[in-house]
Automatic annotation (TrEMBL):
It comes from the Bacteria. Keywords: Amino-acid transport, ATP-binding, Cell membrane, Membrane, Nucleotide-binding, Translocase, Transport. The keyword Iron-sulfur does not apply. It comes from Lysinibacillus zambalensis. Transmembrane segments: none annotated. This is ATP-binding cassette domain-containing protein. Residues 2-232 form the ABC transporter domain. The keyword Flavoprotein does not apply. One of its GO terms (molecular function) is ATP binding. The lineage of its organism: Bacteria, Bacillati, Bacillota, Bacilli, Bacillales. The chain holds residues 1 to 232 of 359 of the full protein.
Length: 232
């Protein structure tokens, strides 16, 4: 579960202060596929980045499974972060490394045994359908395949939460469909809670059960997808 409680984030830009998040109150339940939609600049990216502390709130709190990450020790924080996977619009993969090496990276960094790494990487590569691409370099892959690698890397630490930052915005409609299908399976087969931000209504309609609409740093509406999108 993810709870935003009066979460506020301000950026100092020169002499002016930009309020990216303005007292956000929002709860994402375990098992949700929760979508946050809004125009560019609404605060979506900042919101999702406060969950794994890529951005630290200026005030207010963010609780992840009841824990406020800003209060943890470095060691506890490293453990908690394994619980939160993230995928990105532009994939954020290492081009000089193979598919296997990219997916293994989070495990290598946490000092896990080589044989265990091989097992876990093989398992997630099979899940995303890329077992035969393990030794390929990132530049040899299509956009959809790159995002599958991103998803595999996010899943390899066995998280309970997956954050998706405009994960299909760089993909064509057909590829978007297949990535959304895969995310559905992540939610259903692994029971992972998904929090995604997008500016595309279709993406929300396709896989989310709940949605929040953001505007100017505020949540202006929240509910289940049918309610919010069928209201007159
Ligand atoms: P969205 O993801 O909905 O496009 P963002 O969260 O990226 O919105 O941005 C919300 C507001 O915060 C925008 O006005 C943006 O310019 C500003 N902002 C985001 N990140 C920074 C930053 N690192 N420094 C200054 N301003 C930022
Ligand atoms: P995307 O829309 O692909 O997430 P953005 O251009 O919104 O990319 O943001 C890219 C990075 O720049 C993010 O780390 C964000 O926090 C930062 N950023 C966004 N707006 C600003 C801004 N006005 N000033 C400084 N940094 C910003």
């Amino acid at each position: 579960m993810i709870e935003f409680i009066e979460t506020t984030k301000e950026f100092q830009v020169g002499t002016t202060v930009v309020t990216a998040l303005n007292h956000i109150n929002l709860t994402i339940q375990k098992g949700d596929v929760f979508g946050v939609i809004g125009f560019s600049g609404a605060g979506k990216s900042t919101l999702i980045r406060t969950v794994n502390l890529l951005e630290e709130p200026t005030s207010g709190r963010v609780l992840v499974n009841g824990k406020e990450l800003t209060t943890l020790s470095k060691k506890q924080l490293r453990e908690e972060k394994k619980n939160i996977g993230m995928i990105f619009q532009h994939f954020n993969l290492l081009r000089s490394k193979t598919v296997f090496e990219n997916v293994a990276m989070p495990l290598v960094l946490s000092g896990i045994k080589k044989s265990k790494i091989e097992d876990q990487v093989s398992e997630v590569l099979a899940f995303v359908g890329l077992q035969d691409k393990a030794e390929r370099f990132i530049d040899e892959l299509s956009g959809g395949q790159k995002q599958r690698v991103g998803i595999a890397r996010a899943l390899v630490t066995k998280p309970t939460i997956l954050l998706c930052d405009e994960a299909t915005s760089a993909l064509d409609p057909q590829t978007t469909k297949s990535i959304l299908e895969l995310l559905k399976r992540v939610n259903i087969e692994y029971g992972i809670t998904i929090l995604m931000i997008t500016h595309e209504m279709e993406v929300i309609r396709d896989i989310c059960n709940r949605v929040a609409v953001m505007e100017n740093g505020k949540v202006i509406e929240t509910g289940n997808v049918l309610e919010v999108f069928s209201s007159p």
